[in-house]
Specification:
The complex is a heterodimer of chains A (about 350) and B (about 300). With about 350 residues, chain A is mostly helical. Helices cover about 70% and strands about 0% of the residues of chain A. Chain A has one domain: ABC transporter involved in vitamin B12 uptake, BtuC (Orthogonal Bundle). The chains are: A mainly alpha (about 350), B mainly alpha (about 300).
Chain lengths: ~350, ~300
């Protein structure tokens, strides 16, 4: 019974992803391109050789963390989609901390940078969770609005107070000192951010699955009424889940700054937070499933430039692919437990109640 | 008459209509959708996609009104997809809205790639100021040159308020929004009515997209819509689900959105990004002010998830 549920939970998203790829193929075929070539390029560009695999893994690291920003609040019953805002503020905090106080070099200094990034992200998403508990403000709308406000703050500060006079064409903060940056793992191009991403997913899975606090959070998310009856502190649990998710997204921004861009600038705002939403939904908000799904979508992002160069497809192709995948993934929920009745719309239970009453 | 303060005020007033027109259409579309008991966060995607389609229609045909119609039709199409996906069992309308938001934007960026450079036939403006006898070259008349779609939006708002109250269709829409069980008991198709309302709402929101790409700012680019569709969803809550109040809310937000450019034009440039974020902050403040954790909002359709 339980095994069948698990098998379905894995098979259904995979079928849905295949459906999304199929629709994407049909779409570019209608636009006059060869779908088979596109599918081949997508997977070759993502996992075809050592170079592209490293590229995919590097892009997967922030996706794991921004997906956690959706998944953890989701397990507490909230739909948070403002991870992009937490990410840019995390990146900004990471770039600004060395300007505010002198940091020790090496891993101690880097840890302080990431802690600052985590605090900035956590505060931003916790605010959305708290507004919902305090005033009943819809957290989906408020988190996205907070995201836009965060991006405006980021641009205001990066192009104003913290602007490095040496950055002429592309306003940036002063670059991080060499000793504070995050380096690569061994002899590869993959930076240590990947390890942080995987570790965060494992920790989140442990928290949700093993600890009492994580269990209480899932009760609040799964059945608020039961949580109220047994006296769980719903508001505190929800705000903590939001803060943990926001901290993950903030660290994602910090890693992007400390490992990739070396300074906070507009390169940080490329929609990693939005792709994280899709990753979390495909993974059904399960932290362990986020790891492979993030690698898959990191691969698709990495392959996007190959689609552009070889086939002349617009750079938004991967975004179209992700849009198709998202719609199909949600629609596939309808098939859960009843794969055969896939296309039968919900029938209202009209007439059953009176029949039972007379019998 | 030439003081900077006067210029800013005038620019904000003119901007309230110029910037507020897309807000008006999207919030009317969302209002209709929510009256039937569903939320369409995907109107953000509808807005971007219909802006692209409207621009393409006007560019290819040379007729602005064909562009506007195409924008409405393509908006209806994307909203129809949202309606159908939401009709499947166990599909949450908020999650579906997020998916449609990303889908519509991706599709618009893909198809709109060749449209970034060219110029298209624009929606004409109505020189209200000149009709009222102001100097046609003066700033007063400039501020009163209004988008030809704006009066249509006002008409739709009044018509929708009247229709929801006085027609059989309006009653049915309000009924599925307030009690799906009552609608079933009377033999109406709940999903059918909701899909119809969502699609019609998408058409109206699509007109807002045309206003973005064919009037102000008046060109197609990928940064054209940044959250206007989403702000409009919040506007409907602020307007307590009443179409005519949506009109006032849209004008208020249009004015807030025009504040940044207006201040920039008189030389206040230091806080450009922060002034541009004023509509988002204002939306959030209004949500905090109007929402309440204890009771459902007055006027809210009771089948709606956003207020529960």
């Amino acid at each position: 019974m339980n095994l069948r549920d698990t098998a379905e939970s894995i098979a259904l998203p995979m079928l849905a992803l295949a459906g999304g790829l199929l629709l994407f193929g049909a779409f570019i075929w209608a636009d006059g391109h060869d779908p088979v070539q596109a599918w081949t390029l997508l997977f070759r560009g993502a996992f075809g050789d050592a170079f592209s695999l490293q590229n995919s893994l590097q892009r997967a690291a922030p996706l794991m963390l921004t997906a956690l920003c959706v998944a953890l609040p989701a397990r507490a019953g909230l739909t948070i989609i403002g991870g992009e805002g937490a990410l840019v503020l995390g990146g900004l905090a990471c770039a600004a901390l060395p300007l505010a106080l002198p940091l020790p070099g090496g891993s101690m200094g880097t840890a302080m940078l990431l802690a600052a990034a985590a605090i900035a992200g956590a505060a931003w998403i916790a605010l959305a969770g708290w507004l919902r508990q305090w005033r009943g403000v819809n957290e989906t709308i408020s988190s996205l609005l907070l995201g836009y406000i965060a991006i405006a703050l980021f641009k205001h500060i990066v192009e104003g107070a913290l602007r490095d006079p040496a950055s002429l064409n592309k306003p940036s903060t002063p670059p991080l000192a060499e000793a504070l940056r995050i380096g690569s793992i061994g002899g590869t191009d993959v930076h240590w951010g990947l390890v942080f991403g995987v570790a965060a997913c494992l920790l989140a899975a442990f928290w949700l699955g093993v600890t009492t606090h994580g269990f209480a959070t899932r009760v609040v998310g799964g059945n608020p009424r039961a949580a109220q009856l047994v006296g769980l502190p719903a508001t505190r649990l929800i705000v903590v889940a939001c803060a943990l998710g926001g901290a993950a997204a903030g660290v994602a921004g910090g890693i992007e700054v400390a490992a990739v861009h070396t300074a906070a600038n507009a390169s940080l705002i490329v929609g990693l937070g939005y792709t994280g939403i899709l990753v979390s939904f495909v993974a059904r908000h399960h932290p362990l499933a986020i790891i492979p799904v993030a690698i898959l979508f990191g691969g698709f992002l990495a392959a996007g430039s190959l689609l552009q160069r070889r086939m002349g497809l617009p750079d938004a192709s991967v975004q179209v692919l992700m849009g198709f995948c998202f719609v199909v993934i949600l629609a596939s929920e309808a098939a859960r437990g009843r794969l055969r009745e896939l296309f039968v719309l919900r029938r209202p239970p009209v007439g059953t109640a009176p029949a039972a009453a007379t019998a | 008459m030439d003081s900077p303060l006067f210029d800013v005020l005038l620019a904000v007033l003119g901007g309230a209509i110029r910037v507020g027109t897309p807000f008006l259409f999207v919030s009317l579309g969302e209002c209709l959708t929510e009256k039937a008991g569903r939320i369409n966060l995907g109107l953000e995607g509808v807005l971007v996609f219909s802006a692209m389609a409207g621009f393409a229609g006007s560019y290819l045909s040379g007729q602005w009104w064909l562009g506007v119609l195409l924008a409405g039709a393509s908006g209806a199409l994307i909203a129809l997809l949202h309606g159908l996906v939401c009709s499947l069992p166990r599909v949450n309308d908020i999650a579906a809205g997020i998916a449609i938001m990303l889908f519509g934007a991706g599709l618009a960026f893909y198809l709109g790639k060749p449209l970034i450079q060219p110029q298209a036939e624009q929606i004409p403006s109505l020189p209200i100021g000149a009709w009222l006898g102001a100097d046609p070259a003066g700033s007063v008349a400039q501020a009163l040159n209004i988008n030809a779609l704006f009066p249509i939006g006002v008409a739709i708002a009044v018509l929708m308020a009247w229709g929801l109250r006085n027609t059989g269709w309006g009653l049915k829409v309000r009924m599925v929004g307030d009690s799906a069980d009552a609608a079933r008991a009377l033999g109406s198709s709940v999903n059918g009515l909701r899909v119809a309302a969502t699609t019609a709402g998408g058409f109206i929101a699509g007109l807002g997209g045309a206003s973005l790409s064919l009037y102000f700012p008046g060109s197609w680019n990928e940064a054209l819509s940044s959250g206007q569709g989403l702000i409009a969803v919040a506007l409907v809550i602020f307007a307590r689900w009443h179409p005519v109040r949506c009109l006032w809310a849209a004008l208020l937000f249009g004015g807030a959105g025009a504040l940044g450019p207006a201040l920039q034009s008189v030389g206040v440039t230091g806080y450009y990004y922060l002034f541009n974020a004023v509509p988002y902050a204002l939306t959030l403040a209004i949500l905090v002010w109007t929402c309440s954790p204890r009771q459902a909002l007055q006027g809210a359709p009771s089948e709606l998830g956003v207020t529960r």
